[in-house]
Amino acid sequence: MAIDLESDPDRAADLCRAAYQRLVETTAGLTDHQSASPSRLPTWSVGHVLTHLARNADGHSRRLHGALLGKDVPKYEGGGEQRSQEINEGAGRPAAEVLADLEASQRRLEDLFSESSAAGWPNTLMLGHTRYGPRGCPAHRLREIEMHHVDLGLGYEPANWSERYVAWDLDVLLSTVSERLGDPLHRRDLMAWLAGRAPLPSELTLDPWG
């Protein structure tokens, strides 16, 4: 059964906290060698992925703190360039430093989840250069943790994703399929497969999501 976590930020925040604890369990005892090893994302090490998760938490914190003050603040003031620079600068740190940074960033964000909940998740129309308001921040943070936990390549797999997360994000991702078809001529092939009328062509591809 599909659920809409963007419209239920308190539930999404709880799922986010639980997902983060699973990430903590996976990365407990992470060595410097593991942190410097390749992740499942091209050109990114495990340290890159974990640093991205820390900076992503900071981005959501900026948005929520701004919303509490009545200010429409973007996740990254310097846009994609700032995001890339911060990730690259932090990826090569010792594993313990990377994990401590992520822990501090996540805790700040979780505190803001609580503050925002107490305030009724105000200023819902402040989009911060995204497609979702402050109420959507917990759900989108949950996606970041669950997806990138798998990207670490440290034993956490899609089979470990929570059922409630899948119930939300599967439908969200399915809604992007049509626009991501590598060849628009395959729209009919995809429709026929979804309707159980034909096999899925092996040459059908999707552009990267995200």
Topology record:
Blueprint: H1 9-27, H2 32-36, H3 46-68, H4 79-90, H5 95-118, H6 137-151, H7 163-174, H8 177-180, H9 187-194
Helix pairs in contact: 1-5, 1-6, 3-4, 3-5, 3-6
Q: What would the keywords be for this entry?
A:
210 residues, mainly alpha, Four Helix Bundle (Hemerythrin (Met), subunit A), 9 helices, 58% helix, 0% strand
Are there runs of 5+ residues with pLDDT below 50, and where? none
Q: What is the H level of CATH, i.e. the homologous superfamily of the largest domain?
A: dinb family like domain
How much helicity do the residues have? 55-70%
Question: Based on CA inertia axes, which overall geometry fits?
Answer: globular
Biggest sheet architecture: none
Strand tally, please? 0
The gyration radius over C-alpha positions equals 18 Å
Query: Structural class of the helix and strand makeup?
Result: mainly alpha
Q: Please, what is the oligomeric state?
A: single chain
SSE topology string: HHHHHHHHH
CATH architecture term of the largest domain = Up-down Bundle
* Average residue-wise pLDDT: 93
Distance between the termini: 24 Å
